[in-house]
Design brief:
This protein is α/β, with parallel strands linked by helices. Helix content is 39%, strand content 13%. The strands form seven sheets. Strands 18, 20, 21, 22, 27, 29, 30, 31 and 32 form a nine-stranded parallel beta sheet that branches. Strands 10, 11, 12, 13, 14, 15, 16 and 17 form an eight-stranded parallel beta sheet that branches. Helix 4 runs parallel beside helix 11 and helix 26 (653-665) runs parallel beside helix 31 (828-840). InterPro entries: Glyco_hydro/deAcase_b/a-brl (IPR011330), NODB_dom (IPR002509), Polysacc_deacetylase_ArnD (IPR050248).
Length: 871
């Protein structure tokens, strides 16, 4: 009896302790939320000055150090597998497929820089069920040599980037090739990291086949309980270039080109192959894999039971252990049933659509005066928006909800999951809100928005199980420091970077109506954003603008989220299904292998040059004799009165949409040679170019010319090695294919294997790489319009005419005009409009009337630029 009483008392004590610990942990949880637009600079996007200041202040108070997590020796045949840094998305996707294939767990330590460049990769990792942790901002080695302030800034900013893009708090920090000195550990602790990770085994995947053959030997030498590191990010050396100068010593990153890629797209095949060999070797040796966080629960100096410094720490750890065991024993089957209903919802921050539309969304009904002001301004502007309302708001402010509905705005469900809320609790909350919205207001919706806190997996699973849409935002029109601002202009200046000239198709903007102290701010912002960042996208001249010309359809509209999502005429899948891409665009590499014997003859057939590019100017690697065999006219051989309009670089919706309208207005097609470095930040615009019937070619990924003049020697030199150029070409093509590979126009693909050299410069090495990687034609052109330097429309019209007509007024048959699509090119759309309008007014019998052709209709299979007679 006495022992039974003691057991009951012990259970009671543990229960009270667990409750206290659970509440204490929930109380300490911090769940900030903030969304940003991807075009804002890194400094603005992830400013961590406040967090750095807090970390430095904490260092002055305490010298507590983070715990080093290392392998846990033991008899169990398991290891913790980690991947350090990020590489290109498709390689990571291949690794994720392999992990699933071999039933392996892994922790991806991601660096902040690659995360900002490609946040979708983090989503891929999370969706695959793998863990994400912090690999510092740049994955810089030897960080023990950095000063305290620099360490704090690096750790805090990296934490912010990973937290916001992975929608989770990073728990672990790993520094690349760094000695964990007391200073490093103290700064890590002050920045919020309890543990730092130190691998004790490193598997090299950047030595091609040599690494794969060593996999069995590597695993044979492994110590059970090890933390195994697979480094994806190569060590970098930061170089600061002087403004306006070209780096003549680029880093050499030996990567394969298109010829070495599999049909799945761009890969680093040696990495994926090495990883698979490692997983096979681990499987043969009967090793299982665990997450590093499983090791972090133990001290680095003890195998199973930590040496706690006080009783509360012991109680906390014991409670956590008991919580895990109890949850494992008493987990309800209903959680699994909920998960099996459907796939987790993906938070939609930007809608994949080519429609000329974006969305305003609103939340927060506590200030009725603000809601009334917003509704009045929206009605005045003819805008229909989406309002997200919570169940509590429906009950407390039913008259406001009815007013929103009466004004014919869309209504969605707002949720605020509580800390620790289960999947089933979130589902019930959504269902209850949906039922109330239907019963009391007669509105059905499948749109859900979490209006505070990071969006957790349980929320995504709950929304997905109900087959609802989880709506996020591209831009959050709320920054805490602006709460008491009274000037709309001041907020606009901070909200939009100078380089962000306009908004984009498919973007979702979120306004909180209960945030600002000044009740007029929200209404002022929605008007200012429309006027300055949306209306400027339209083509508007004194003779043709959307106001006086109903046929001018260049204006972007503001529509409810659901309306854009449901317009399947414009929505699309990204990345595109590779099986929907024509076979010849999936195949990588040339039909005929290029070698020293056939290179020059092949190049001369596939190079359409430019008169100004010659042996003395922007050409290296060729002899004077070689130069004579290369085209310098820039004309396509044809007897037709046809010209070709081509556009280089990349730009915002404000610039490119005007070009698209003019071409659409005159029913002509162009070829857009895209710099792909930033194109994935606006896939909708690239897709729209293709869908409207234009051809897509590459202008490289990083826009590094094949040759630049050395300012010291005044001789032309290369800017990168062949391997680096291979990677650039392959990356560019793969990005274009991911977005436009399945688009066709009049039965022909929009995507081409055409390439325009940056600055039109060419080198023998560059042309070899282009032909080796499967590009069909290297196209410069007959006339460089220099439209980016035009002083006015009249000057540019005259320049274009010189490129189209001879001095006798005849059409220059096969002329290729080189123009641009960047934001600094302001006269090109209007100049083309004038030229094309004048041409259309001519009689069909007029010999000076030209037609605008598609390059792919003339550069057919077997076309040879060097053999005019053949055509």
């Amino acid at each position: 009896m006495k022992s039974r009483t003691m057991v009951l008392a012990l259970i009671l004590i543990i229960g009270i302790s667990l409750t206290a610990v659970f509440f204490y942990k929930d109380f300490l949880k911090n769940q900030p939320v903030r969304e940003y637009h991807s075009n804002i600079t890194l400094d603005d996007l992830y400013n961590a000055d406040e967090e750095v200041a807090q970390a430095l202040a904490q260092l002055e108070k305490s010298q507590e150090k983070a715990t080093i997590v290392t392998g846990v020796p033991g008899s169990s045949r398991q290891i913790a597998l980690t991947f350090d840094g990020l590489t290109d998305r498709n390689t990571v996707q291949q690794i994720l497929v392999l992990l699933e294939k071999y039933n392996s767990k892994a922790t991806f330590f991601v660096d902040g820089l690659h995360t900002v460049e490609d946040p979708q990769t983090l989503a891929d990792i999370k969706n695959a069920g793998q863990k994400i942790e912090n690999f510092t901002l740049l994955g810089m080695p030897k960080m023990e040599n950095l000063p305290i302030e620099r360490l704090a800034k690096d750790f805090c900013r990296a934490e912010k980037i990973v937290k916001e893009n992975a929608t989770q708090e990073p728990n672990l920090l790993k520094c690349n090739d760094t000695k964990y000195t007391d200073q490093v550990l103290q700064v890590a602790k002050a920045c919020g990291f309890k543990n730092v990770v130190q691998s004790d085994a490193f598997f090299n995947v950047r030595q091609g086949n040599a690494a794969t053959t060593d996999a069995d030997a590597f695993v044979a030498a492994l110590r059970p309980g090890s933390i195994v590191s697979v480094k994806l990010l190569a060590n970098i050396e930061l170089i600061t270039n002087e403004p306006g100068k070209t780096d003549l010593k680029p880093a050499i990153d030996k990567q394969p080109g298109l010829i070495e890629m599999s049909q799945e797209g761009l890969r680093e095949p040696e990495i994926a192959l090495a990883v698979e060999k490692l997983l096979i070797a681990l499987q043969k040796a009967q090793y299982s894999t665990v997450y590093v966080e499983d090791y972090s629960k133990m001290s680095s100096k003890t195998a199973l039971w930590p040496d706690y410094s006080n009783q509360f720490a012991l109680l906390t750890k014991t409670a956590s252990f008991l919580q895990e065991q109890i949850m494992a024993l008493f987990s309800c089957p209903i959680a699994y049933a909920a998960e099996s209903i459907g796939q987790p919802a993906t938070e939609i921050k930007t809608i994949f659509t080519t429609e000329q539309a974006l969305s305003y969304t609103f939340g927060g009904l506590t200030k009725e005066s603000v809601v009334n002001d917003v509704l009045e301004r929206l009605n005045k502007l003819g805008i229909k928006a989406t309002f997200f309302v919570s169940e509590a708001e429906m009950k407390k402010y039913p008259q406001i909800v009815r007013k929103i509905i009466a004004n014919k705005h869309e209504v969605g469900i707002a949720i605020r999951p509580k800390a620790g809320e289960s999947l089933e609790e979130t589902r019930k909350s959504i269902m209850s809100s949906s039922r109330l919205l239907k019963e009391q207001f007669g509105v059905s919706t499948n749109l859900v928005k979490q209006v505070s806190g990071p969006v957790l997996d349980t929320t995504k699973e709950a929304v997905g199980s109900l087959e609802y849409k989880l709506i996020g935002q591209s831009i959050n029109i709320v920054q805490s420091k602006q709460k008491d601002y009274t000037s709309v202009d001041a907020i606009m200046a901070e909200l939009f970077h100078k380089s962000m000239l306009s908004l984009a198709r498919g973007q979702i903007l979120y306004f909180r109506m209960d945030f600002y102290t000044d009740d007029q701010i929200v209404g002022g912002l929605l008007e200012s954003i429309k006027q300055n960042k949306i209306d400027n996208i339209a083509y508007a001249t004194f003779y043709d603008n959307p106001i006086n010309n109903r046929a001018n359809n260049s204006q972007y509209m503001i529509k409810p989220v659901g309306e854009i999502l449901n317009n399947t005429k414009y929505t699309y899948q990204y990345p595109v299904d590779l099986q929907k891409v024509p076979p010849h665009l999936r195949h990588d590499g040339p039909e005929i292998a290029i070698n020293s014997h056939n290179f020059l003859s092949t190049a001369s057939q596939h190079y359409i040059g430019q008169n100004d590019v010659n042996f003395e100017d922007r050409m290296i690697g060729f002899s004077k004799m070689d130069e004579r065999r290369l085209d310098k006219t820039g004309f396509v051989h044809t007897k037709d009165n046809v010209i070709f309009l081509t556009f280089d670089d990349w730009g915002s919706d404000a610039a490119i949409n005007k070009l698209l309208y003019v071409l659409r207005k005159h029913n002509v097609s162009g070829t857009f040679f895209i710099i792909t470095n930033n194109v994935l930040y606006n896939t909708n615009l690239l897709r729209a170019i293709a869908v409207e019937g234009h051809e897509i070619g590459s202008h490289s990924d990083k826009h590094k010319p094949m040759a630049v003049m050395d300012p010291r020697t005044h001789k032309y030199v290369k800017t990168q090695e062949k391997e680096e150029y291979f990677k650039d070409l392959a990356t560019s093509y793969q990005k274009l294919r991911e977005v436009t590979g399945d688009v066709t126009s009049n039965g022909k693909p929009a995507l081409t294997r055409f390439f325009r050299p940056p600055t039109l410069a060419i080198s023998k090495m560059g042309m070899e790489a282009l032909l080796d990687t499967g590009y069909d034609y290297i196209i410069s052109g007959s006339t460089s319009t220099n439209d980016y330097k035009a002083k006015d429309i009249t000057q540019l019209v005259d320049t274009i005419k010189e490129g189209v007509y001879t001095q006798y007024g005849e059409v220059k048959k096969g002329a290729i005009l080189v123009m641009h699509m960047g934001d600094s090119v302001i006269y090109t759309p209007a100049a083309l409009d004038i030229l094309l309008t004048a041409n259309e007014a001519k009689a069909d019998s007029d010999p000076s009337k030209f037609k605008v052709g598609r390059l792919s209709d003339y550069l057919f299979e077997g076309y040879s630029q060097i053999n005019r007679k053949k055509h």
